[in-house]
């Protein structure tokens, strides 16, 4: 069944570009948009584009320090870094008009949130967003302004009383967690690779929220090597019960594709087919717990050709209620564009050929399984705060 989807888009979103040697390359967004267009996702009757405008300074100040905003502007004008603000580092090199490009990403995510909050659409997306590491006073982990936190802060400013944020990027959603750590109006849930093996080194189950919001920061830290079945088991054991109890007015999700086994920067082993199951689960939870109000953001993903375009095309199709048979071939025109744009061989099909089934956690806890250990640690840390029994 078709769903209404507004896509916040401006060609300028691809100007968020740290340079040709940086892992976060905007070509992944270009290829996603091209593949989605070729497969007819944007032709669905309930899909439309909405304008994205740069976030104003006043809007950015909802989450970012004024001095930091001025430092970003200065760095983009002078191309001189500022160590105090983590600008000009290998992770966050400066580039021309850095503020303008970063503010546009933030504005696009707020536009998506506005479309959902106003009732114009059920779902809205900013596929170029999901820059979840940026902190109030400094850049961090390829992220200059935190568009995810900005969208949430805007919703709260409009009067929202309960916003849930679910982050499935392989990296911990540390910036969003930090900004709402003591705010019980925001439930942040992050499933990510263990901080013992991956940046940013945070996201332990013991990080549960501040004194006024204990249990409202939720972290599932998964061991390196976690595959589809184990990841989905962890998600199913934590996210649906919490969202069902919290009943958010809006669900905001960060859909990083870097959990894939081909991703060069991380160590989980999900397939494209497992990621598709995640998108379906998110959509279902938006309908069941948030009245259908779903704000969809991109995120990480560094296998730029083989993974991200296919993953996020499936994501947008899911949000639009458009059926894409995973067995179909990628379109010839898109393959030609990939070769022309990147010089790489494109993927041939919309699937990795996996069948990502999983056994629910409630079927039995294995104390020797590190994933089950992670699940149980998280449930014990936060479920009681929500009146949920963490035991099986």
From TrEMBL:
Belongs to the histone deacetylase family. Pfam families: Hist_deacetyl (PF00850). Residues 22-317 form the Histone deacetylase domain. It comes from Nocardiopsis gilva YIM 90087. Pathway: Ketone degradation; acetoin degradation. InterPro entries: AcuC, HDACs, His_deacetylse_dom, His_deacetylse_dom_sf, Ureohydrolase_dom_sf. Keywords: Acetoin catabolism. It comes from the Bacteria. SUPFAM superfamilies: Arginase/deacetylase. One of its GO terms (biological process) is epigenetic regulation of gene expression. This is Acetoin utilization protein AcuC. The keyword Membrane does not apply. The keyword Repeat does not apply. One of its GO terms (molecular function) is histone deacetylase activity.
């Amino acid at each position: 069944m078709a769903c209404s989807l507004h896509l916040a888009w401006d060609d300028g979103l691809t100007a968020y570009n740290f340079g040709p040697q940086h892992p976060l390359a905007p070509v992944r967004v270009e290829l996603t948009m091209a593949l989605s267009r070729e497969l007819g996702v944007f032709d669905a009757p309930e899909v439309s584009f909405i304008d994205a405008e740069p976030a104003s300074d006043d809007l950015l100040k909802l989450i970012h320090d004024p001095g930091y905003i001025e430092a970003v502007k200065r760095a983009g004008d002078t191309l001189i870094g500022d160590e105090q603000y983590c600008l000009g580092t290998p992770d966050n090199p400066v580039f021309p008009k850095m503020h303008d490009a970063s503010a546009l990403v933030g504005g696009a995510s707020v536009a998506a949130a506005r479309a959902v909050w106003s009732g114009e659409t059920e779902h809205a997306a900013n596929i170029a967003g999901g820059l979840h590491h940026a902190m109030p006073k400094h850049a961090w982990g390829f992220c200059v302004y935190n568009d995810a936190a900005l969208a949430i802060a805007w919703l709260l400013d409009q009067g929202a009383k309960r916003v849930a944020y679910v982050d499935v990027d392989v990296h911990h959603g540390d910036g969003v967690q930090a900004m709402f750590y003591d705010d019980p109006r925001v439930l942040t849930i992050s499933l990510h690779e263990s901080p013992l093996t991956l940046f940013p080194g945070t996201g332990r189950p013991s990080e549960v929220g501040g004194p006024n919001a204990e249990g409202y920061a939720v972290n599932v830290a998964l061991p390196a090597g976690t595959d589809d079945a184990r990841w989905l088991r962890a998600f199913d054991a934590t996210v649906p019960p919490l969202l069902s109890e919290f009943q958010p007015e809006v669900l905001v999700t960060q859909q990083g594709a870097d959990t894939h086994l081909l991703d060069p920067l991380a160590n989980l082993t999900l397939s494209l087919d497992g990621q598709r199951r995640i998108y379906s689960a998110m959509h279902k939870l938006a309908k069941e717990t948030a009245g259908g109000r779903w704000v969809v953001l991109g995120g990480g993903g560094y296998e730029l050709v083989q993974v991200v375009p296919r993953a996020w095309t499936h994501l947008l199709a899911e949000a639009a209620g458009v059926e894409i048979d995973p067995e179909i071939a990628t379109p010839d025109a898109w393959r030609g564009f990939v070769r022309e744009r990147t010089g790489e061989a494109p993927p041939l099909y919309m699937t990795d050929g996996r069948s990502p089934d999983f056994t629910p956690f409630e079927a039995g806890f294995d104390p020797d399984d590190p994933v089950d250990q992670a699940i149980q640690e998280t449930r014990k840390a936060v479920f009681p705060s929500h009146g949920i029994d963490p035991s099986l």
